[in-house]
Amino acid sequence: MVDMTWPEIEKSAEQGAIVLLPTGIMEEHGPHMGLAVDTYVAYLISKLARRELEARGINTLIAPPYYWGVSPGTGAFPGTFSVRKETMKAVIYDILGSLSRWGFNRVFTVNWHADYHHCIAILEAVREARLDTGIGAYCIIADYDVRRLRLTGEEDYVLVQKMPPPQGSSTKYVDLHAGSLETGIMLNYFPEQVDAELAKRLKATELTYDDLRALGKGDSEVREAIPLGYFGDPASFDLETARQFVEGNARDLSGLIEKFIKGNYQVPATE
After folding, report:
1. How far is CA 109 from CA 3, 112, 193, 253, in A?
2. What would the CATH number be for the domain defined by 6-259?
């Protein structure tokens, strides 16, 4: 959208185009990557999904990425711009209000930041915008996040995407933030944003989900738990694995949206 004129946007709305809304955050990502990883990846997946959707005959636009997210845990580090949940919720709500005013009626969020309060802000904004404006807005949620976000998957504002297990889930240690997957994605698509030589020298954190409870505590506990601002194993990045993950994600996302538009969507089984 940011590269379009207003008449072009108006015409797209009149033609029934759908809108993808990438959501991320400006957040520290270790000593080897910049702040915009989550926003870059959300936008990348949206671009790849748009290509797939257009190939399937579905006119698709990408809204400007939303990047003022919620992350009280990594807020212990300089560079993490963590806003209040209420602030984020209000901005997402207003973005959807603008799209509704312009005539768009099918909007799908594409999120790449897992903080609980961040995700809840998106869910609540979408639900309330639907009620107040009538817009057909939907949160796309990974199947393994349904229970974590206290959803049933049957909500009328939620679409559940069946996802492969997160990379690194075969071990007891988590690799979720600036680890092998995100480092590999960024090196594949935005190599100038990564200090690859530094990444190769970083040691794996060997943290479990229980260890990460420190992220919900004070700044000192966070800095002690993840002193370099990452949890995972950046040095074990694999470019091909990362590429396959992102492209597979985009294909699955496109297929999900296509099924929904054509009335063939069914909620997948969740654990």
Report:
1. 20, 10, 24, 11
2. 3.40.50.10310
